[in-house]
Queue: 2 jobs
Job 1
Amino acid sequence: MSEGFAPTLATPVRDYAAYTLNPQGFVSGWNSGAAAMMGFNAGEVLGTHFSRFFSESERSAEKPERLVRLASASGSADYVGHGVRKNCSHFTSHVTITALRDNNAVLLGFVSIVRDLSLKAPSDYSKARETSPVPVVHDALLVRDLNSRITFWSQGAQMLYQWTAKEALGHISHDLFRTTSPVPIEKITEHTQQSATWDGRLIQHRKDGSVVIVESHWEVQSDESGGVCAILQLDRDVSRDLTAYKRLGQSRQRLSEAFEHAVIGLALVAPDGRWIRINGTLASILGYAPDELIGSDLSQVTQNGEACLNEDERRALLDGKMDFHRTEKLYIRKNGESLWGAMTVSLVRDALAHPLYFIVQILDVTESRKAAQSLADQRSLLQAIVENIGHALFVVDTTGAVLFFNGIARDLFGDPGFIPLEKVPEVYGLYQEDQRTHFDYRDLPLWQVLNGASLAEGDIWVLNETTPKGAWIHVVTRPLLNSDDSLRGAIVVARDVTSERKMQIEMEWNRAQTATNARLSALGMLAGSIAHEISNPLAIIHAGATNVLEMAEKGGAPLSVIATNAGHLVHTAERIAKIIASLRHVSREGNSDTFGNAAIHQIIGHALELWGQRLTKASITLDCRPIDRSIEVRCREVQISQIMLNLLQNAFDAIETRDGKKIIIIEVSAKSSWLEVSVLDNGPGFTPEAKRQAMNPFFTTKPVGKGTGLGLSISNAIAVEHGGRIEISERDGQTCVSLLLPLLTKNE
Amino acid sequence: MALSPSILLVDDELLLAEITADWLRRKGCNVLTAQNGSQAWEILQEIKVDIVISDVRMPVMDGVELLAKITASGPGAPRVILVTGHSDFDRRNAYNLGVEIILDKPVQLQRLLDSAGRALSSKKHSWSTLPPPCDNATIRNSFRSVTDAISRGSIALGRGGFCIADGFYDAGDCVPLDLHFTADKQGIVGQGIVRWSDRKQHQLGVEIAYLEEDCRDWVITLLAGLGICSFIPRETIASL
């Protein structure tokens, strides 16, 4: 049975020292173990106080005295501390002191057993404590006389063998224990008396009949004369080690199966780096038969031909500087394919912390590396897109902390750090429409989205150190959601709209300018006619006045002739006044006038005042029946007059150069709630295309220089502003353009 | 100037025509009136007059159309004076068609009478009256000969003036003239009035107002020899 023990699991006897003390603590006996461990021979220590085996600090703490007092009081005392050898070197010692008493309980002295723990675990004192959990307490100490009768029975003995001192004392020890030994007991006793000690394994029985295997250490005790008077026996229970060893065998079997069938690649590697065992999975990962790899260092399967575990890594593991080592490497299969393997190496040690072998796990991570690579590719693609979208982009979490931003965002705001939301307008220099007042952070699109909005946008004026000239940005913010639809943050996209806004302002200005120009152009067209309207009466006044003047100078003209001429002057001057009144009516912009009630017959009357002569001179027949004087509309009178002028102008242009009869008809009708003023002409009419585009600004069928193409579009805009519209139709072969306006009811 | 020139006055403004006619009659003119171009043309078929004074804008037939009809009727046609209250009609065209002068309403009755007299007087007489001095830069040019200048499009001559490639004057400007024709050893030297100016096309219509005695006869003979009805041609040939 003893050959079944691994030598490392057995305890060398030498790590015990035993000596006896008299009741005062002076050394009274000294064994060879003690001599070997401490370096003193018996002559040097007998009669001296045992405190010399303790360190200075323990001595000054009166440790030795307290130990003997404790042992005297309670039977035994344990202590782990620093033992001191003759050469003054220290070692970690476990001291067990047991009081020896005679049958009348008179204190005879003490037995002190010392164990050198440094030997067991040279590295670490505390570790030693853990790995040797005070086994001495369970060690049985007994003293036999030369007839093998038990004369001393320690507490440890009671714990190991279950008999009390009373029950055990006086019995023949090997009878009591029903000892089985490789050699007859008598022979061992004889050997002990001759060579002072014996060490060996015995199989004993406890009081309850159970078997216990002990490592037994025998040592003779001499009396003052040097004769052998007794044998001291120290038994240590090793049954548990044995059982553990047996179990280890079984679990080793199971472990081996698990090893073979593991889904990951496993291997055992000797401390020197050679591979001693490889499971099927690892072999198939690498594409070899297991036999082909055993004994090598696997350099043939790594990309650079280096050993799987390099020297530094191996040393670090062996020296305990690393608990495990993990690395990802490119491996080459036997067929030349490459694969990524994640290798984890850890060291297995025996119970005494001696290195046994490395366990190597290798996992094929090619697929996950590919996935990671494609993820990285996607990420860089996304990054490229985000950097090149031309807009500033921020990704912000729910606290407002910037998780991500692109280069354009940096150009606008510098490197965004974490800024509390309420400080953002101030720090980033975000201003309202007036470019002076800071944005309220609660008006920020970002704040709105973080507080539940599904989309928020707005224009912000940015003026900060990175954008010293200022810029208008249009910010669009959308929530960023987790997969469960909870809010993760927000995506802020900011577009520089500075030039856009500038253009828009210019365009608006231009539009206003164009409208004004169109009005002026319409007036310009009228101007010729108006000049004529005024210059003719002026010519009459001039000629008439010249006549009157000459009559006055020459004298003799009849008063009736002078009166007739003067009458012409008055009448003609009034005609001019009337034209000017009408002109004033249409020349103002009128778009800021207030709405008022106006009789439609008056509006049309003014327009015809300006157009009448012109129509006549162009040989155009105007057909306008008397208009009901009670019809009124709520309007800006000037603007409606302008529409009428436009409609007349269009009709005039359509037929002015036509041969034959030229007719313009003006019709006014009030149907239910609508007033309809139609201007009809017998011109060529609208083509379908022209009709479709008629209301578009700048569309014109007139020759270059004849019209701006704004007449109808502006007229329509004015009509719509008045709640009405312009309609184009055809009636009895005539072109009909109608202005529709809501009619004023009687009550209004 | 004939002692009692006959004048056809055309205007749709009846009162104006009436007052003007009264005044002209008192000055010794024989005056007929018409309300539009068409009526005037009918009268002209029956009666020969020296001068037609016509409004431009009129129903049925306007003044320019009437002018075109008159000048097209050949030599011996009455001189035409247009009177207008308008800025936007083509004066350049009217001069080309042969109008003597275009007057703006309201026109002084005496000026009307003077213009009529001037239109009827011989060129020798009217171009010898020294006009008031004028500060504008002289139109100074030297051509190889009249025919060469005309064929190259440097100048176009009319009854009462010329069209020349120049663009730096405005209508109404008076302008000293100093045009030389080297081979002809003659020139147009005197003073003119710019009747129209086209800066874009770089063309100028100039009525001759006065000629130095040295060149007067030569110019009168030259222009009469051309036998054209344009008072001032519309364009030099090159730009046609």
Job 2
Amino acid sequence: MHLSPDEIIFWQYGLFKLNATILYTWGLMCVLVIGSILVTRKLSVDIQRNRWQSLLEIIVSGIEKQIEEVGLREPRKYLSFIGTLFLFVATAALFTVIPGYEPPTGSLSTTAALAFSVFVAIPLFGIEASGLGEYLKEYLKPTFIMLPFNVISEFSRTLALAVRLFGNMMSGTMILAILLTITPYLLPIAMSVLGLLTGMVQAYIFSILATVYIAAATRANKPKLESKVIRQTSPKSSLATSHQVENKTPSNG
Amino acid sequence: MDSMTIIAVASIITAGLTIAIGSIGPALGEGRALATALTSLAQQPDASATITRTLFVGLAMVESIAIYCFVVSMILLFANPFWNHVIAQAVGK
């Protein structure tokens, strides 16, 4: 019983090992990229459209709406990064229905790499939104004594992201393996359904936490008044006011 | 009792205690969070999307404590460095 797919090695040449993690990661990447290329070859804007195109539209617009609800005002800028995180972790969990497949996120290497990419992306987005000086001054708020605690919290958030995802995926596969040796038929099916559910929830959690951290980094220095003003001019209220204007002008004219 | 037995006994007992005690706190915390979320959903049903999303994020943060305990327990059982070291020594003899 192995702890992670890193230990299954298919091919070895000196220091280079082709283990199950790398193989399944590249397999997932191929499936996602080739699938998307095949679907987006002929996009249509008619009423009649391909069901795969509808599926992709549901996914993309759903992620965009979630990013906007968390508080990032231009979701398109962050959609590629956060959408990739969500899709990778979600399909890695979804394909456990295929026998013989082990999710690559069940290895600490993969989850550490994903968490490290979030760790690098947060300052990048923060500096792009507000400049280097403003972003670095955030670490000194509320007082400059908080500087070591803010730095430590950055690292601990990243570590928590990695270990949370690894723990959830690894526990799913481990419990399934243990149950298969005890009660072969019914209970492993129930546990694999539970593993699918937790995999989807963990994918959502990973991407939403990344969004929340990025929102905290890009929004923190905007003055409170401006954020209130922007909230009041949200699309719904501006539509309502434009309706009122349109209703007024015919009666006046 | 030689060192091999001591290491095995300590690892097994600690693994069991880790996951047993370590899942009490997160379970209680998640129950409280869920109860509060249900109350606020009953009071304001039209904010259900925000409440549900915040509930899930909060539950994931609390759950990660239990996951840390589970990871430590699994390491003690299946990837125990002290056990591996002692076994390597015994095989070497």
